Amino acid sequence: MDRVRIGMLLLAVALGWSAPGRAEPARVVATFSILGDLVRQVGGDRVAVTTLVGPNGDAHSFVPAPADAQAVAAARLVVVNGLGFEGWMDRLIKASGTKAKVVVASKGIVPIEEDDEGGASHGHDHAVDPHAWQDVANAKRYVANIRDGLAGIDPDGKATYEANTSAYLAQLDALDAEIRAALAVIPEARRRIVTTHDAFGYFAKAYGLRFLAPQGVSSQSEATARDVAAIVRQVRRDKIPALFLENVSDPRLMQQIARESGAKAGGRVFSDALSEPGGPAPTYVAMMRHNAQEFAAALKE
Predict the structure, then answer these.
(1) Which end of the chain, N or C, is more open, meaning fewer C-beta atoms within 10 Å of its C-beta?
(2) Angle at CA of residue 135, ends 202 and 124, nearest 5°
């Protein structure tokens, strides 16, 4: 290569020019870590994903910062869960002035209500459960909606998004079968669990477990002394085998229930957020596998 061409190449690198025909990744904002992982699985290297609520973060109590508004303003696509999960998101979108397309990942899913899960009402009637991703079949719907949203803003990448989606849906089918096999060893009489808030209603409905929680479908709902006392009585009466602490919750409430009821404290499970990258649940698939294994280990004995 002659000196002129070398000089031009070095200038191009210095100025940050891209190779001909190589598009910049599409900027996508996902509201929380689980959605962020799903977007990356579908988008691959054609997307640059910013997640507003990161690993181990609680989207129920999240307060957006100015940098979050800037990220939304710069995005071409914004992916939200919907079902009332991100009560702050509409205000953030409006404040950002973004022109991004908004995809509701849960579109097409029939939501369940808190009372449908067999739990207490916690002082409010028929709260919609937004945690639809806890059923792998619903996660497949999320992925399809994300695929369509990405193809809408980046038609040139449609074939890539479709191929990535097909491969990932096969992983999710295998995951669903794995969860069912892991939970099949649990005796019917031991299929009862206490968690901090009602985040596992879809998991319960799909996989045949029963969950109780002192808090409602939002981790920000206050558990009253009456709620806690009712859970303690039920744990004792029904001999519920295990309590599980969620990664987004204050441990003190579950420690109190375990202490007063005598129930065994199970492992840490992941409800509304993934773990840190080096943790046990850095991806959606790893999260669902980890939770199923923790439930099975505590309940099969």
Answers:
(1) N
(2) 20
* DSSP conformation class of 190: G
DSSP letter (8 states) at residue 111: P
Cβ–Cβ < 8 Å for 271, 199: yes
pLDDT average per 10 residues of sequence, the chain (301 residues)? 49 43 86 98 98 94 96 98 96 98 98 60 58 98 98 98 98 98 92 78 94 53 66 71 66 68 75 95 98 90 64
pLDDT, residue 18, reads 41
Which strands, in side-by-side order, build the sheet including 210-212? 210-212, 192-195, 242-246, 264-269
Angle at 46 between CA 41 and CA 51, to 5 degrees: 60
Q: Contact 18/255 with Cβ under 8 angstroms? A: no
26-175 placed in CATH 3.40.50.1980? yes
In the chain, ranges of CATH 3.40.50.1980 domains: 26-175, 184-299
pTM of the model as a whole = 0.82
- Are 31 and 79 a contacting pair, CB within 8 Å? yes
Decide: residue 197, CB within 10 A, 0-12 exposed, 13-18 middle, 19+ buried: buried
pLDDT at residue 222, rounded to an integer: 55
Residues in the chain: 301
Distance CA 72, CA 96 (A): 6
CATH tag for 184-299 (out of 3.30.1360.40, 1.10.1380.10, 3.40.50.1980, 3.30.230.10): 3.40.50.1980
Q: How far apart are CA 18 and CA 5, in angstroms?
A: 16
Is the separation of the CB atoms in 37 and 59 below 8 Å?
Answer: no
